[in-house]
Amino acid sequence: EVQLVESGGGLVQPGASLKLSCVASGFTFSDYWMSWVRQTPGKTMEWIGDIKYDGSYTNYAPSLKNRFTISRDNAKSTLYLQMSNVRSEDTATYYCTRERTTRYFDYWGQGVMVTVSS
Amino acid sequence: DTVLTQSPALAVSPGERVSISCRASEGVNSYMHWYQQKPGQQPKLLIYKASNLASGVPARFSGSGSGTDFTLTIDPVEADDTATYFCQQSWNDPRTFGGGTKLELK
Questions:
Q1: Is A26 helix (H, G, I), strand (E, B) or coil?
Q2: How far, in Å, CA of A70 to CA of A59, rounded?
């Protein structure tokens, strides 16, 4: 059974940094591109970016690429999202997703909440 | 960015057929995908590449369309289908989502 379990969320002050993790199981992690997607409290969904199966390439939504960094550790079957200089508009639930060839998301984690507030 | 427009809400009775639309601001070929999200849960893939049923999804769900106009159809609707349905395109960068259609059962 495919499982994606995110962690690392919480309350963070504006301007701070935060690193989210996603541990994958039930499939060969190193065979798949992975993505992060977020959902605001108003339910708007936004794709953040993805990373190639071997970690050699990343792609980001232009509005986020200067502050967010995606990485992975295939030995640990873990995906990461490093968030820097966070803003109130980054308040959202962040989902780790497995990505398929035509760039849709066939499995989603349960999500982790990030609240940016002073 | 490619904007995907969905109707905000629909209400139908169990046993009926419902069509949920998604219109793209520019062509996305057949690279449109549909997800179901129930309250408090993560999204679940229903349809990929416009018309392909994801694994384990009941055949009551179907998808159609190409270019800019796409439809997710549920026939017949069951009480368990109460959820928000999102479309997502992957033809143009960046990938974008529709605002979601909340389906309520009468």
A1: coil
A2: 9
